Amino acid sequence: MQVDLFDFELPSERIALRPAAPRDAARMLVVEGSGLRDAIVRDLPQCLRPGDCLVFNDTRVIPAQLEGTRGEARIGATLHKREGPRRWRAFIRNAKRLREGDAIDFGADVSATASDRAADGSFALDFAGDEPVELLLERAGRMPLPPYIAAKRPTDERDADDYQTMFAREAGAVAAPTAALHFTPDLLASLDAAGIGHATLTLHVGAGTFLPVKAEDTDDHAMHAEWGRIDAATADRLNAVHAAGGRVIAVGTTSLRLIESAAGEDGVIRPFEGDTAIFITPGYRFRGIDGLMTNFHLPRSTLFMLVSALMGLETMQAAYAHAIAGGYRFYSYGDASLLLP
């Protein structure tokens, strides 16, 4: 499909620079079939049915943004995928000043050697020393806010909490599964009381999620792989939800992509551990999920293509036009949509 079909105009003032407070006070656009309804996130128990199950991503964002030097050159690195115990694949700013074999000093006694430059311009970074890389990043790294926020304000101490979900447990993501940022313990208790269950899986979100689609046709776009895991108990739980007539509602496109990667043509969700580079565009037949809660996405992005595949392009164009006209806040710290085909 032509990528231009997924373009739209978004006024810059619609981009949220801070999350709603409290988190579950964010607005939520309910898209059910082709109908639209305005709500807020804490209305979620009334928007779902007893027996439904929300699926959260329990990945934890690491301080994956690094600033360093190679000689006199300033080098920026955004880690996006672990490739070994001490090796991470990284997107590099000022990459023309970096060669394979060069060492980068990130300060705080943290350094890494660049190697294995890929076609997309990324490098592998091998971190020096014996300390766990996670400890090195805590010293030298900072929270990797999305570029559309980082371009408007610096990262600060609030982001260390604001950019983690209440489910964050498994360290390894360089971007938050932002739909789950809206959840609070009180909201989860209300959902439980309404008979709506929840489960967790792990998908370590990569910085590739922010990359624009530069191809003119979706067939020519290459997705970056991300590592994920659904254990046997979770797979069994989700299959039991379906067997009992409930719906599996992914919270975030990360949860959706992993469930769909694990689901077979027969609709059965199986245990999964490994990389997925699934790319969902209109025409895709969903096998594992029955709905999605997600934030509002970038024009021409793979994520807007995904929601269009779920609900239909015309429906999502109408939903986004409604959201823009109605003052909804967009992107990672913005408002939510609940998509029920």
From TrEMBL:
It comes from Sphingomonas spermidinifaciens. InterPro entries: QueA, QueA_dom1, QueA_dom2, QueA_sf. This is S-adenosylmethionine:tRNA ribosyltransferase-isomerase. GO terms for biological process: tRNA queuosine(34) biosynthetic process. Its main location: cytoplasm. Its EC number is 2.4.99.17. Pathway: tRNA modification; tRNA-queuosine biosynthesis. It catalyses: 7-aminomethyl-7-carbaguanosine(34) in tRNA + S-adenosyl-L-methionine = epoxyqueuosine(34) in tRNA + adenine + L-methionine + 2 H(+). It is found in: Cytoplasm. Keywords: Cytoplasm, Isomerase, Queuosine biosynthesis, S-adenosyl-L-methionine, Transferase. GO terms for cellular component: cytoplasm.
